[in-house]
Design brief:
The protein is α/β, with parallel strands linked by helices and 294 residues long. It has helices spanning 9-22, 61-68, 107-114, 149-170, 204-213, and strands at residues 3-7, 27-31, 53-56, 73-77, 92-95, 103-104, 118-125, 135-142, 187-188, 221-225, 228-239, 250-254, 257-261, 266-272, 286-287, 292-293. The strands form 4 sheets. The protein has a 7-stranded mixed β-sheet with strand order 3-2-1-4-5-7-8, sandwiched between helices.
Amino acid sequence: MNITLFTANVTGVLLLEDLKSEGIFPRVVTYARGFQRTGLACDFERFEKDFIVTYLSSNNYSESADILGDIGLPVCIDFTKDFFEGAEFPVIYAHPSQLPLYRGYSAVTEQFERGVAVSGASFYLRGEKIDGGDVIYKTPLRIGFEDYPDDFLAKYAIACAEFIKALYVKGLDGFTSVQQDDAAAFYLQRKRTRDALIDFNRDSFSLYNHIRAYSHPYFGAYFLSGGQRYVIWRAKPEKWQGDYGDVGTVLNISDDGIEIACGSGTILLTDIEGFKPEDFPFAAGTNILFNEQI
């Protein structure tokens, strides 16, 4: 079966590594280096020894058809959602959720933010609505309590590789399509940097979910103090509930991290970009929100 894989970004790199380990080598289409203006963009040149890679500088199939030629059955995994708009042939898309839930952009971040424990990988035929086509296969993927987005994307990439392997064996006709329930669907907006701002007035568990939602490979949750931005890559709830002082107060500094008072409970910041615990510029008793002793 002639399959062309359209992929990009971090997910695409993980996927190609998994496919290579499985001995599966579809033709790959991705974006030319520098074309994507996103921190998730990756260099695919290292895969050219094993895969036939075509690079595009267009977000539209009609503008790229001559370059692409015969693509057989296109499978899009972490690729522009409306690239094949108007195409009159089957196109398979993958989405990191149990559709119809979490359609649109930033599905991974949103699910971590909400504390979703069971997500999934869904594969569907392109339809009139973004992420709204008939589902031909989906599988659950658990988000562990200590998982971060890079852990989930590794699981998602494996699920995508397994689907592609099955597609080679069964063909598209070997899958049964199921219409999505639009009544259960909702769409997400693309997350912006401002959405990652940390609000220490929340409870410690909500803050933990917020911090890990924006962690690698995304741009990182952060707080502002004294005109400087402090990016937090990892954390964990230290005390789950209760009043431990004014919100934003540094309670303790140790090798384990920086303990901060929340609206309820405390959060331990274990990975702050550019700082080791001993270098943290706020002493115990200082409120990081107001940069003063409490």
